[in-house]
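Dear support,

I submitted the protein below through the web form. The confirmation email said the job was done, but the results page showed an empty box. After a refresh the structure appeared. I'm attaching both so you can tell me whether what I see now is the final result or a partial one.
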Amino acid sequence: MKGPPMRDQFGRRIDYLRISVTDKCNLRCTYCMPVEGLAWIDRDEFLTYEEIASVVRQMAGQGLRRVRITGGEPLVRRDLPDLVRLLAGIAGIEDIALSTNAVLLPQFGRELRDAGVTRLNVSLDTLRRERFRQVARRPERFFDETLRGLEVAERLGFAPLKINTVLLRGLNDDEIRDFARITRERPWHVRFIELMPTGDNLHLSERFLSADVVLQKLQRIGDLRPTEGPVGNGPATYFRFDGAPGTVGVITPLSHNYCDRCNRMRLTADGRLRTCLFGTHEVDLKGPLRATGDVLPAVRSALEGKPERHFLQLGTARGSGGLRALSQVGG
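What the results page shows now:
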């Protein structure tokens, strides 16, 4: 049954759900997950694909229109195209996107595209093969697979194709020019993302690089003009070099938060509806889903408790909502 659009206590319309399907990943990016991994969620605690589809179906009746599948790395969960097909069949869902490191895209790209994924965000923090081991803490062959995955994605027609790059001073900030050059040559959209502090990446605080500094560096490369950017649901601010087929964006959770226009909630792999990436407020959906099948009262409770903003602060995890690592909720 179709109801009124979902709105939180501050009147923001919520029409976007990020769905984490696993907390596991085949990389160990230095800002995202400790090298030894985490205490993994037990498999029987994961929502099944049918349960995820049930949540989305009920929320679609209340105005949910867009979903993004995340992890960890979502492609490490078996049979992910089956979930995409379920979501694609839900009335009201207009857009299905995927966040990935692209390592497994050569294997699964075609099936995902056929199942209904149209847009990709690909995490790539270096263009230098010899640096990949330092950033992602995995062998260079994974870098080769990532580049192959990007080639496959472009060939299969995923669009827009966005590249997410977390910049860290003294680690990969000397590649800003190289990443920006991509947007002049290909219809890709590179987004530079500020470091987001969590419990296990505080040692990187001294490497924080604000988007303001990034934009200053970009202006030295060429004439950069504000633009609307590609279709999407994210918080990036976009710019374009004259004549470039792609865009450059910045995502600024620390230097300039964008909470006033937040339109999203997050469903964790074990069935919690998290109302702010860096907030402590979350509501259990798995319990009512498995008890009665009805999650809408819990969703309404979540909307009523969604905070006005986050309180991230560089150098401390106090504002991170208790997160040890971004991989726990898919960023």
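Response: this is the final, complete result; the empty box was a page-load delay. The chain has nine helices and twelve strands.
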